[in-house]
Amino acid sequence: MKILEFSLILLGVLLNAAAQLLLKAGVRQIGQFDFSLANVWPISTQLATNLPIIGGLSCYVVSVVVWIMALSRVEVSIAYPMLSIGYLVNALLAWWLFGEAVGPQRLIGIAVIIIGVVIVARS
Questions:
Q1: Which of the residues 39, 56, 75, 118 has the least number of beta carbons within 10 Å of its own beta carbon?
Q2: 26 contacts 50 by C-beta, under 8 angstroms
Q3: What CA–CA distance (Å, rounded) separates 92 from 75?
Q4: CB neighbours of 89 closer than 8 A, spacing ≥ 6?
Q5: Cβ contacts of 24 within 8 Å, gap of 6 or more
Q6: Three-state secondary structure readout of the chain
Q7: Residue 108 neighbours by CB distance under 10 Å
Q8: Burial category of 106 from C-beta neighbours within 10 Å (exposed 0-12, middle 13-18, buried 19 and up)
């Protein structure tokens, strides 16, 4: 895999991870909610005007464009498993930013996934 191809895939993965983290930050500001007919409008308004959520959705849009560029250059059977790198990025950043629990068992599971990605990338 060439450096440009890997860079596009990695950028797509990082944008996707950033989107998840921004969405989490946004809903942390809003708080837990349930959709019901009575609160669809208030919750929708809060979600639509929340800057981290807008940022997260924007990251998704850009990541799709980057991902399409990557897929035009790399086989999907190689590119798609690379998305698993996002598991590691999200787990570590969620631990650091939000104080989420990332225990040894979770880290071992992520490591197994990453090893699989490396094997696929080298094939």
A1: 75
A2: yes
A3: 28
A4: 13, 14, 17
A5: 94, 98
A6: CCHHHHHHHHHHHHHHHHHHHHHHHHHHHHCCCCCCCCCHHHHHHHHHHCHHHHHHHHHHHHHHHHHHHHHCCCCHHHHHHHCCHHHHHHHHHHHHHHCCCCCHHHHHHHHHHHHHHHHHHHC
A7: 10
A8: middle
**Residue with the two structure tokens 């991902």:** 67
pLDDT tens-place string over residues 61-111: 999 999 999 999 999 988 888 888 898 899 999 999 999 999 999 989 988
Contact 16, 59 (CB under 8 A): yes
**Of residues 4, 11, 39, 64, the one with CA closest to residue 31:** 39
Q: Whole-model pTM? A: 0.86
Q: Which two tokens stand for residue 59?
A: 């990251």
The C-alpha atoms of residue 35 and residue 44 are separated, in whole angstroms, by: 9
Residue pointed to by tokens 């969620």: 94
